[in-house]
Design a protein that fits this description.
- Helices cover 40% and strands 13% of the residues.
- It contains 16 helices and 13 strands.
- The protein has helices spanning 9-21, 65-68, 77-87, 98-110, 123-138, 156-159, 170-173, 184-193, 215-225, 237-240, 245-250, 276-279, 302-318, 320-341, 370-382, 398-421, and strands at residues 44-48, 51-54, 59-62, 116-120, 142-146, 176-179, 198-203, 229-233, 256-259, 270-274, 348-351, 358-361, 385-386.
- A seven-stranded mixed sheet has the order 4-10-9-8-7-5-6, sandwiched between helices.
- Helix 9 (215-225) links the parallel strand 7 (198-203) and strand 8.
- The longest helix is centred in the C-terminal third of the chain and has 24 residues, at 398-421.
- It is globular and about 70 Å long.
- The chain starts with 8 loop residues before the first helix and ends in a 20-residue tail after the last helix.
- The model has no long low-confidence stretch (mean pLDDT 96).
Length: 441
């Protein structure tokens, strides 16, 4: 597929319908057409494995599938079989289904560092429940979150820290404080600044860089010394780092942790897990005040829990995490070689763990550039690669990765031309892509 061949008239028409009916044109901001080059925002018709087709009939290799949630590939047969089996038996009842017990036991066997688990439908429900529980247990109000990690929740305690705090009361904003990743001294200083006030620290255990030696254990010790609660957001690291999450890989057990995304392979399921003595505050077997932990109408839909069990079984039996790492390593090496061959190795930069790769697009002075990101994305799209990131799925074949590298090489050739010209504008095709979090439209 060349730039001259990529036409999206139906996608553009559906995008207009979306904007007329849906604020922002998508139900998730990260999927908005402002995240893609102008007039090159394909609307998806269907997907299978690592491939998707848009409403115009164009086929793409897809990366970052479902915002990292579809890690086994679209329409995975093992997952669909489990879902179909439960759909014929009913999906939601007035009392718990036996599937709820089976799914909880399967999760706790897969993530043995947790002692209890409660399911929900999205990550925000789980992280906000963790914050609420920590506040109840400690009797404290402040929440400390890692400022270097991009997203924790759609709820006020987090969104108030972003460039889009409109509608959030100032008193709520004042209760959230931040700390940098990898710096124990900064966290100690935060506890000293707010003595006896911080209910919990919440962070992703790892992102684009590995945790410094001893950092996670040191953080755990520090949090407990100050009577606070440590929460790991494992929405992304869960399963992609190991079947037992980053906590299983690094050997550091948080008090509470949250899982989602890969857990359902596209089906809506998330989990709050943790130590029994904390989690039971949201239960019935204690003598204290009750905590409204999680209570969602659809949190235990049987087909979603069946999907989660099938995902966990597939990961363990088929070594999916190892496959994700192998595919990611092949892709990262190929992209770096392609960038170097075109003289843009210092501008198209692959970062992150092999199972969770992202890329940076830097201008002639080495600064992050939305204009160059636009140019790069446009070249990838016209080459049949839909890649807001380079996050792999297990459905990719080595030939798919190699084809992606070829397309990246073509994109890097355009990138080199733009750098030599000193201006990427002629290759943008319109306005540049925009950051998700920004104050103005």
């Amino acid at each position: 597929m060349s730039g001259e061949e990529l036409r999206l008239p139906r996608s553009r028409a559906v995008n207009e319908r979306l904007h007329a009916a849906v604020p922002g044109g998508a139900h998730t901001y990260a999927k908005g057409d402002d995240q893609f080059p102008q007039d090159l925002a394909p609307v998806i018709d269907h997907g299978r494995g690592a491939h998707v087709w848009d409403v115009d009939g164009n086929e793409y290799l897809e990366y970052g599938s479902g915002l990292r949630s579809v890690s086994l590939g679209h329409a995975h047969p093992r997952v669909l079989e489990a879902v179909r089996r439960e759909l014929d038996r009913g999906s939601n009842f007035v009392r718990p289904s036996v599937v709820e017990a089976e799914a909880a036991e399967r999760f706790l066997a897969t993530v043995p560092t947790a002692e209890m688990v409660k399911f929900a439908k999205n990550g925000s429900d789980a992280t906000t429940a963790a914050v609420r529980l920590a506040r109840a247990v400690t009797g404290r109000r402040r929440v400390a979150l890692c400022a270097d990690h991009p997203f924790f929740s759609v709820d006020d305690w987090f969104i108030g820290t972003t460039p889009m705090p409109a509608g959030i009361p100032s008193e709520t904003l004042d209760l959230t404080v931040t700390f940098p990743y990898g710096d124990l001294a900064a966290v100690e200083a935060l506890f000293d600044r707010y003595p006896g006030e911080i209910a919990c620290l919440i962070l992703e255990p790892a992102t684009q860089t590995e945790p410094p030696p001893g950092y996670l254990q040191g953080l755990r010790d520090l949090v407990h010394r100050h009577g606070s609660v440590l929460v790991f957001d494992e929405m992304i690291t869960g399963f992609r780092w190991s079947e037992a999450g980053a906590q299983g890989l690094y050997g550091v057990t948080p008090d509470l942790s949250t899982f989602g995304k890969a857990l359902g392979n596209g089906f809506a399921v998330s989990a709050l897990a943790g130590r029994r003595e904390l989690m039971e505050w949201g239960g019935l077997r204690h003598d204290g005040d009750r905590v409204f932990l999680l209570s969602t109408t659809h949190g235990a839909e049987t087909h979603a829990l069946a999907a989660a069990m099938a995902v966990q079984t597939t990961y363990v039996e088929e070594g999916v995490t190892a496959r994700l790492h192998a595919l990611g390593e092949r892709l990262a090496a190929g992209v770096r070689d392609a960038a170097a061959a075109m003289g843009v190795a210092g501008h198209v930069v692959v970062r992150g763990r092999a199972s969770n790769l992202v890329f940076a697009t830097l201008d002639a002075r080495g600064r992050p550039s939305q204009e160059y990101r636009t140019l790069f994305l446009r070249s990838l799209l016209t080459g049949g690669v839909l890649a807001p990131s380079f996050v792999v799925s297990a459905a990719l074949e080595e030939a798919d990765v190699d084809r992606t590298v070829d397309v990246v090489g073509q994109a890097c050739a355009v990138y080199r031309k733009a750098l030599d010209a000193g201006d990427p504008t002629p290759w943008l095709g319109g306005r540049p892509v925009r950051p998700v979090f920004r104050r103005k439209v």
